[in-house]
Specification:
single chain; about 160 residues; alpha+beta; Immunoglobulin-like; 2 domains; five-stranded mixed β-sheet; five-stranded antiparallel β-sheet; 2 helices; elongated
C-alpha cells in the first residue's frame, strides 16, 4: 500500500513539475524583448504668414533601417499604420497610399491604413493650420516585423514660438 501511495505521489509531482515547466515555457515564449523603435521626426517647420506648422515623420537617408525602401525602389516597403487622434483642431495627416508614389491621402481622425515611404523617405506629414490649431496623436507603424511608434502633441502656437 505504501508503494502505491508513493508511486501516486511521484506521478503527481512529475505532472505538477511538467505543468510548471510548460507554463513557464509558454510565458517566456510570448514575452518579447523586442521593443518598439521611435518613428523619427525628420523635419519640422512653420509659416507665420500662412499660420501653418508641419511635422514630417520618416527616415533620414543615412539612418534608414536596412530592408526599408521608398517608392523610388522597385519593391517599396509596405507599412501598416495605425494613427490615434484626440483633441484635433485644424490638423491633418498626409501619407503616400500606393507603391508607385502617385497617390496621397489625408485624414483628420483616427485611422488604420497601408502607407509607403515617399521618394523623400517621408511616411507621414502632419500639418496644423490656424493660430489655435493643435492635436494629440499616437502613431504605430509596422514594417518588416518591426514596430515604430510616436506619441505626442503638436500646435501652431508652440511651433512658432508664440507660447
Amino acid at each position: 500500500m505504501a508503494y502505491i501511495k508513493s508511486r501516486k505521489q511521484k506521478r503527481s509531482i512529475f505532472y505538477l513539475g511538467f505543468l510548471v515547466l510548460l507554463i513557464a515555457g509558454l510565458l517566456s515564449g510570448c514575452a518579447s524583448d523586442k521593443k518598439a523603435r521611435e518613428l523619427p521626426v525628420i523635419k519640422h517647420k512653420y509659416s507665420k504668414s500662412k499660420h501653418t506648422a508641419y511635422r514630417i515623420f520618416g527616415f533620414d537617408y543615412a539612418t534608414t533601417p536596412s530592408g526599408i525602401y521608398n517608392v523610388v525602389n522597385k519593391e517599396p516597403t509596405k507599412f501598416t499604420v495605425n494613427v490615434y487622434i484626440a483633441d484635433n483642431e485644424g490638423c491633418k495627416f498626409t501619407y503616400t497610399k500606393d507603391d508607385k508614389g502617385a497617390h496621397q491621402d489625408q485624414f483628420d481622425s483616427t485611422q488604420s491604413f497601408t502607407a509607403y515611404l515617399s521618394g523623400r523617405n517621408e511616411l507621414l506629414t502632419l500639418e496644423c493650420t490656424g493660430k489655435q490649431s493643435n492635436i494629440d496623436y499616437k502613431i504605430i507603424a509596422y514594417a518588416n516585423g518591426i514596430e515604430y511608434d510616436s506619441i505626442g502633441n503638436f500646435s501652431y502656437l508652440v511651433e512658432s514660438g508664440a507660447l
